[in-house]
Design a protein that fits this description.
This protein has 2 domains: about 5-65; about 90-160, DNA polymerase, Y-family, little finger domain (Dna Ligase, domain 1). It has a two-stranded antiparallel ribbon with strand order 1-2. It is rod-shaped and about 80 Å long. The protein is built from 5 helices and 2 strands. α4 runs antiparallel to α5. The protein is α+β, with helices and mostly antiparallel strands.
Length: about 160
Amino acid sequence: MILGRRGRSSDRKPSLEALRIPFEFVETLKRWGKKLARFCCLPEISIVERLGQEGLHWWRLARGADDQPLIAKEFPANFEEHMDMDSPVELLEPLLFVLNRLLEQLCARLLMHILAIAEIKVTLTLERNDSRAKEPIFHTRTIRLPVPARDSKLLLKTLAARS
């Protein structure tokens, strides 16, 4: 129930369907002539006798008395995408093609968590031309964005402009 001024309920009352109560329960309650307010006023014993434990669960949700507390989920501190290449990338255009794919995956994950990024860190593993040294060279570039974003096209243009 949404309360307005002076504790009076407003016209926008939630319905049984808004609580995502299964169709079978909604139909049963409609046959009984019950709406959400009346459903909430029924005694707990009657709910269990007529609808069982699942009905009791929906009755508690309708009353706002769910006994399971909300537990916040930890978001990852860093969002990271990587790709191993079979052959070296020597030109900027193929590199941007690969980066576009990685940025689209990254932005999809950010959108899923309702987050945006303020900094992009790109690390490239470079091959050595001389055969004596076997350790790769790492090239890292960090770009701070003026405004947090999660648009892959914008991020790709920013990377292309700074490379």
